[in-house]
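Table S2 (text version). Query chain:
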Amino acid sequence: MSQGVEFNRLMLEMRSMQAEAMARQKPVISTPEVGAPSFSEMLGQAVNKVNENQQASNKLATAFEMGTGGVDLTDVMIASQKASVSFQAMTQVRNRLVQAYQDIMQMPV
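Corresponding structure-token output:
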């Protein structure tokens, strides 16, 4: 029976601590920092980085195919995989953005 009393006392203490923590929280208002890039700028930079990865991969592959010295097959394969992974990640981000847009457009006003 004492375990039940201890448990109840512990639960009451936890609830009072939770209420205190909730009372102390201030509402968070998000304000953009001065000089911070906007979402569209960040997305544009990410797309440009994916494009750079793909171009670098293509250049290495072409150099390897032409027999240029100093170009190793492992470097070509690593660059190709980096380009592939970055493209797949960008595609997933795009898919999520499109889905979020569609969800917002279907919300009742």
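Notes on Table S2: Residues 16 and 22 are 10 Å apart (CA to CA). The longest helix spans residues 73-105.
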